[in-house]
Structures are given as structure tokens and as C-alpha cells.
Description:
Helix content: 25-40%
Structural class: alpha+beta
Radius of gyration: 21 Å
CATH class of the largest domain: Alpha Beta
Number of helices: 12
Largest sheet: 6 strands, mixed
CATH topology of the largest domain: Muramoyl-pentapeptide Carboxypeptidase, domain 2
CATH architecture of the largest domain: 2-Layer Sandwich
Amino acid sequence: MRTAKKLMAFLVLAFVIITTVACNNAETKDKTEQNMKEKETDTKSKSEGIDYKALVNKLNPLPEEWEDELEISNTVNSVGDDVEVESKAYEAFLKLKEDLQKNNGIYIELDSARRSVAEQQKIMYDFIKKYGEVYADKTVAVPGYSEHHTGLALDLYFRLKDEDGNYKDIYYNEDMVMYPHIWEQIHAKLADYGFILRYPDGREHITGYGYEPWHIRYIDDVNAANEIMKQGLTLEEYLSGERLPEVRVNYGKSKRYSHDELAEAVVQIKCEFSKMEGLELHALNYVENEKKAKKALKRINMIFEDADYTQAVCFISSFHTPSDADKNHWEPDKEYTDMKWWLARSKDGEWELVLYGRDDNI
């Protein structure tokens, strides 16, 4: 993940103020037989003290002693950046790179891999000092909760070779997404070398991050990697043995916003929902009400003194609570259909999740 975003915890019975930005009840839960058999025997693939299937996300920090056990390889990419990678992951990357170059004519490079917790803390400190705490929280991953700490998360970019034999680095996110056919070929070979696509499209409510075709994860298990990729699972689902449902999204027939604009807002909501442990998101429904949107926008700009938002949108979610839900917050085993999510943006800006809750007083 190039830029991880932190969101604060939420209050249940009223709207809450969100000073940071991110970014399921199934009728049936598909528990694969193969997955469950692996859980009964050994869910971990360990080498030299680390668990290559360790889960690090917004809810699960880097395991203790990880950095002491990690064996690191160093390399320099085509643009001159130094990159640190866990050694076995780097060996697998080199084999993947050779395969793609030889058989597909695709030249991949490492943009970034390992960042230590100390490095992340320094980045956070520098951003707070330069831009302030609110901006830093929006743009910098929480130290200790970034998968890049593991050394097993690799961000790729690729090089294009023209007819004269010259290479052009396709390095920036906005450029890389313009080549889906190249990513499709890369993704097709990941599992054969023990890699998975870590943040697949549409699974933001599970992973906490939007689709990143360049972000791959080494798990040191070809069989498990093939199962994950063929079944379209996330690492979270594989490790739990449960496949969670797709989220139904009703975009309505908006006269103000395009489908893509609303889809960007949905990703923000789903990323935040990933931190609400135990809740299962079913649906998001766009609500277009110009009068309420203007009222909400006025209140949002009053709450955020330095804000200059010009647009606001609202979605209503449906989700289910677990049977062991905290009764101080939720009624156990219940479907809630009245949670509202307000997002705002300034002119030409990105949607930011600013308010959400079950209060009608907005």
C-alpha cells in the first residue's frame, strides 16, 4: 500500500466526527474443505522464525519480535531507489520477474517493500511537524499496522520497451492503472511463486484498502496461493476459513454525480467498515436529497473549521451483528438498516468520510 489512511473509532447511537480518512452477514458462509483441513493441521508456513501467512492489517499489528527474526535482502530498482525485501520473498520475486520477462515480455520492478516501524514513526512525525496532525492521520499509515513492515508486501511497477529497445518506467499509480491487460498477465502468475494479490477489487470492506493491482504479498505456500487466487479470496478470508459476501451497492439514478464519483465514495465507506470487527456489511444505498445534503454540508463546514467542502453525499448501510456482539453497542444477531454515512469533498477534491451514525438530526 503506497498510502494507508487511518480512521478513528466510531460511536454507535449518534453521528461521530471523523478526523481521518481511509482509504457482513452472509446468508451462507462458504467454508472450503481444503481450507478447513489445513486449519486442522497447520495454518502456518514458517521459516527461520517468521510466519509467512501472518496477518497485518488495520486490526492486527506486526507480531512482536518480527523485526529481530527478519532476514533482509537489499536491491536497487531501475529508478535508483534502494529497496529492502524479506530474503525468500525476494528470491521468489526474481523468479516471477524472469518468467514474465521471458514468456510475456513484461519487465517488472520493485517500487517498495519493507519499511520498519521506526521508519514509519519518523514519517508520521515529519508529516505532523510539516502539515499538522489531522493531515498526517489522513495520509500516513499507523506505525505497527502496515503490512509493509513484514517485508513480505511488495509494490510493483513495470517498464515498457519500445521498438528501438528503450525502456520507459511506468511508475505512478495513475499511469499504471491504464494497463489492466498487463496486470492481468502479472496476476495470473503470482500464485506459482507463492504470491497473492493482497487488495482485490470489491473487497475493501474486508482488507481495509481499495484495489491495488501493484500490491502483492508473499505467503511462501504455492498451494495456498493458488487456492486464494483461483477462488478470489482475501488473506483474511483464507485464514478464517470463511468467504464473506459481496456488498450490494445501489447507486440510484443520481442527477448530480456519475457512477464513478459515487463508487469512489463507496470505497471510503467500505474501508472504514473493515475496522468494525465482527460486523458483516450487506448493502449500501445512495440517498439523493438536495435539501438534506445542503444542511449536512453547512454543519460539516461548521464542525471542521478549516474545511471548505462544497459537496456532500449520503449512503445508508445494511449490516448484521454477530451473536456475541457487545450489548453496550449493538443488539446481538440483528440486521441494522439505518446507519447513515456522510462524505464531503471540496472542488476537484476526493471524497472524505466525515460523519456517520444512526442519528436523524442532520
